[in-house]
Design brief:
single chain, about 450 residues, mainly alpha, 18 helices, about 0% strand, globular, binds phenylalanine, transmembrane helix, Na/ntran_symport, Transporter
């Protein structure tokens, strides 16, 4: 199905509703689901954290994704231009915050994705199957202690991102998504199935789903809320930008609900793949950012056909990361193209290079700069990740929720929301959630963390 509708500004459109869903799901599903969700779940004690995370997705995440997409589609602009066009004044800062968040997140995202590219290369060479499984986790420490190879893979990943973004909306962003996402889903399903049937399977399920509410302290709540934003690509205008390429017939609530469901499912599946290994081999659930890299390869090293499965898995992980990183870069590029009238190619190349440089301290943060602690005992990479996910994204999300619930003309919101085959009762439900529930929840979690209760 191809729609070719005139838009207010001449810019690309997704070629179909499926293309829009796949691209948005591609943005949402990434390292956040497979690298970050399991490790923060491990650090915050499992079940209660997971359930609160799902609660945040439903009450804040989905309404906010709808809000971003309708603002994008209505204005057909980058985040800064969108707020300028709709209201102007201080609200434009919300768009700016998004562009800055795009810079910051992409800078370290490329480093972690670089680890995945390195693991793809290692899997392809059969490294995991040649090792005794007890030695597999050491491979990760070796990588972290090698600054040059981290910089190298970070550069490789940034280059891939830049090449796709130069290609533009349809040819670049969309085509790739449609093929790889379903394969990723399948392989995760297989890994989770293997996990559930392993000796640690039952304990993993208990860990992930039976809540011990005493573990849900204020930092855990903020982490879960922040991760809902990070995982769904919210609070910084990525979904706003993708919405700006959506055609007029698509039902935005349907897209947002589908994408959020897929994203949550992938996170849970990767938890179900990783934690059985943790418990079967007596590893530490709170091992931190290396968790996925230390656990799954142990499984690959033991299973028949491990080299092939490992290669396929890391290929897909790199791919999932790419479909997210392109959406991060796209926010920045859309801003320079729309607001500063730069060409797409120039904007992509220049910003890609600058963001790479900003990411260098993150790449060095585990070795050369390992004694530089920014927030608490956290190194540079973990600190910038914490700043973005726990503060900048929820703040951006809070502003977008307040804007769309209290400031934006409700006629516009209602009109956009009900386009396509959207059930009419969705509008009042969305309006209630975005106007009251989402801002209050974000504010409560912030105040809770600040020690007010
Ligand atoms: N959602 C992506 C992930 O889970 C990361 C991301 C955050 C992408 C914000 C775009 C915007 O990996």
């Amino acid at each position: 199905m191809t729609h070719s509708h005139p838009t207010k500004v001449k810019r690309g459109l997704w070629s179909s509703r499926l293309g829009f869903i796949m691209a948005s799901a591609g943005s949402a599903i990434g390292l956040g689901n497979i690298w970050k969700f399991p490790y923060i779940t491990g650090m915050h004690g499992g079940g209660a954290f997971v359930l609160f995370f799902i609660f945040c997705i439903v009450t804040v995440g989905i309404p906010l994704m709808i809000a971003e997409m309708i603002i994008g589609r209505h204005t057909r602009k980058d985040p800064v231009g969108a707020f300028k066009g709709l209201h102007g004044g201080a609200w434009v800062l919300t768009g700016w915050l998004g562009v800055i968040a795009g810079f910051m997140i992409l800078s370290y995202y490329c480093v972690v994705a670089g680890w995945a590219v390195d693991y793809l290369w290692l899997s392809f060479r059969g490294t995991f199957t040649q090792q005794h499984s007890g030695q597999v986790p050491e491979i990760f420490s070796n990588l972290l202690s090698n600054d040059l190879s981290q910089l190298f893979w970070q550069a490789v990943f940034m280059l891939m991102t830049v090449i796709i973004v130069i290609g533009g909306v349809k040819s670049g962003l969309e085509r790739a998504n449609k093929i790889m996402m379903p394969i990723l889903f399948l392989i995760l399903l297989v890994l989770a199935g293997l996990g559930l049937n392993s000796p640690g399977g039952a304990q993993a399920v208990r860990f992930l789903f039976s809540p011990d509410w005493s573990k849900l302290d204020p930092p855990a709540m903020l982490e879960a809320l922040g991760h809902a934003f990070f995982s769904l690509s919210l609070g910084m205008g990525a979904m706003l930008t993708y919405g700006s390429y959506a055609d007029e017939e698509t039902s935005i609530p349907k897209v947002a609900i589908t994408v959020s469901l897929m994203d949550t499912l992938v996170a849970l599946l990767s938890g179900l793949a990783i934690f059985p290994i943790v418990f079967t081999y007596g590893m530490e659930p709170a091992a931190g950012p290396g968790l996925v890299f230390k656990t799954l390869p142990v499984l690959f090293s033991r299973m028949p056909g491990g080299t092939i499965i490992a290669t396929l898995f890391f290929l897909l992980l790199v791919f999932a990361a790419l479909t997210s990183s392109i959406s991060l870069l796209e926010v920045v590029v859309a801003y320079y193209c729309d607001e500063n009238r730069w060409g797409r190619k120039k904007a992509t190349l220049v910003m890609g290079a600058i963001i790479f440089l900003i990411g260098v301290p993150s790449a060095l943060s585990n070795n050369m700069l390992k004694d530089v602690h920014i927030i608490g005992a956290r190194n540079f990479l973990d600190s910038i990740d914490l700043a973005c996910t726990n503060y900048i994204l929820p703040l951006g999300g809070l502003l977008i929720a307040l804007f769309s619930g209290w400031v934006m003309t409700q006629g516009i919101a209602k009109g956009e929301l009900l386009k396509g085959d959207t059930n009419a009762y969705i509008y009042p439900a969305w309006h209630f959630l975005i106007k009251y529930v989402a801002p209050v929840l974000v504010a409560l979690v912030f105040l809770n963390k600040a020690g007010f209760f």
